[in-house]
């Protein structure tokens, strides 16, 4: 799980990044702190944690070099993923037989890797 922050303030010359908890709350995350510890959860999943150092809670994120970050602006791909999710092959076959997608294409299916 990763924590993605949207609509955040950025100060280029600042040595540390500050996370405002208000936007996290708006995105259904739960913030809790006590006994010198801070934790952000989404449901039962812990997505961030930190320890208090002086008056701030400091996070030490684990960064994996094997992770590939990509942004895809293809709204149709996102729309179909929201509609179908992780549908089974049987479910896809049923939709295909009902001609949900129209005529089959002879074009090869390609994918982009970043």
Task: Give short descriptive properties of this protein.
single chain; 114 residues; alpha+beta; 4-stranded antiparallel β-sheet; 22% helix; elongated; Retrovirus-related Pol polyprotein from transposon TNT 1-94; GAG-pre-integrase_dom
Describe the fold and architecture.
With 114 residues, this protein is α+β, with helices and mostly antiparallel strands. The chain has one domain. It is 22% helix and 21% strand. The protein contains three helices and four strands. The chain has helices at residues 21-26, 75-84, 89-97; strands at 30-34, 37-42, 45-53, 56-59. Strands 1-2-3-4 form a four-stranded antiparallel sheet. Strand 1 (30-34) and strand 2 (37-42) form a beta hairpin. The mean pLDDT is 73. This is Retrovirus-related Pol polyprotein from transposon TNT 1-94.
Beta fraction: 15-25%
Q: Supply Rg.
A: 21 Å
User: Would you list the SSEs in sequence order as H and E?
Assistant: HEEEEHH
Portion of residues in helices? 10-25%
Q: Unreliable segments (pLDDT under 50, ≥5 consecutive)?
A: none
- Major sheet summary line: 4 strands, antiparallel
List the helices and strands and how they pair.
Elements: H1 21-26, E1 30-34, E2 37-42, E3 45-53, E4 56-59, H2 75-84, H3 89-97
Antiparallel strand pairs: 1-2, 2-3, 3-4
Protein name: Retrovirus-related Pol polyprotein from transposon TNT 1-94
Domain GAG-pre-integrase: 56-105
InterPro entries: GAG-pre-integrase_dom
